[in-house]
Here is the input.
Amino acid sequence: MAKIHPVILSGGTGTRLWPLSRALHPKQLQALVGERTMIQETAARVDDRKRFAPPLVICNDAHRFVVAEQLREIGIEGAIVLEPEGRNTGPAVAAAALILAREDAAALMLVLPSDHAIADTEAFDKAIATARAAAETGALVTFGITPSGPETGYGYIERGAALNGVPGAYRIARFVEKPDKRTAEGFIAGGRHAWNSGMFLFRAGRYLDELQRFQPRILAAVRAAVEAGVDDLDFFRLDGPAFARAPSISIDYAVMEPTEAAAVVPADIGWSDVGAWSALWELGEKDGDANVVLGDVVAEDVAGCYLRSEGPLIAALGIRNLVVVACRDAVLVAPRDRVQEVRGLVEAMAAAGRHEQTSPSIVHRPWGTYQSVDAGEGFQVKRLTVKPGARLSLQKHARRAEHWVVVSGTARVTRGDDRFDLEVNQSTYIPLGTVHRLENPGPEPLRLIEVQSGDYLGEDDIVRLDDVYGRGREGDGG
Here is the structure.
């Protein structure tokens, strides 16, 4: 039996989960409902080499090294395809289908968002088996989630007649946009509607055929982007100008709604799209007062709250039904029933040019991480962690000097024509304009404090002269 090819879509930014989720480190790269990140959980869910091929991940160019590292951490190897820009799920799935169809147009694709939670994996596996049988008849299958209530934040799918020869699968009568409360209650009472999960299973060639029928511009643009794409280290980079010509349309609008081949498999799998902080409150382990408490929190006379600290202490007194999330550089406080509106806050921050909506307090790079500890007029202090065997680019700065103090591990320093090692409590100075590089030659993480001084301290004040990660000459941090 041919293996199913998981296609993991990792292009979203998760704005409603700000401040933890940021544009440069979105929710799928966070550990929100367990010890592993959302994308790790998604990949692990289909890590069965008897049934599944290695995954194909479609991700944002800016996230490529973090995605690769997180998959490596759990021992999963797969292809990573880089989107030059987000064009919604229709073109993203088209790129995956074209790549898979190079080898086999009949390849079965299981399309999975990278940021969903599924509690009942056994039921999920059974739903996949049913969907496979339907896809092998030529159907384009989506998974319809058995509703737990009259939710107004999801789209719905109304099932039609049973699909001949495939027990548990149905024709789709219609898709319904997010309904009002009264309409949703009617859907639940009728028993023929399911939530639209955004997960799909179909043959690659079948999807491409229907895309050609209904959205030929998407197919032409994405085909050109794949044909002109290039390998870049361990990634495949779609051609930017070609991909940008693809209309930005979801797979639902592009194919699933107009096609006559759409089918649905109802699935009661403990699913959540983790679309807002209220979803994490629902998924979380609650105390006797219905609070979910994570991190450094002291709470008195608190009920129905989601309290999460990623650094500073949260001290809460006498509050009800609130969400309080504290990161090192930002704090969110909102009524639990209004957290869907966080997206608007993030948009307002973006309009005001605030960096907090984009950059997390801990910034990930292919060589490790850095975190801003303090900053003021003419100076900035950072904490750097360099992974074993990793190295920053060979670089120089036009407007700042740097002082490095080793906290743990061994630092190998290139400074001009000199090359030397620093141990714990040793330090060095990198003068303005001096070519330099930092490496970790040891088996343990290298941690150091970097003090920058100068009249401009932006991350774009870097000229890379050599970079093992294939990044461009103009810098964006190390």
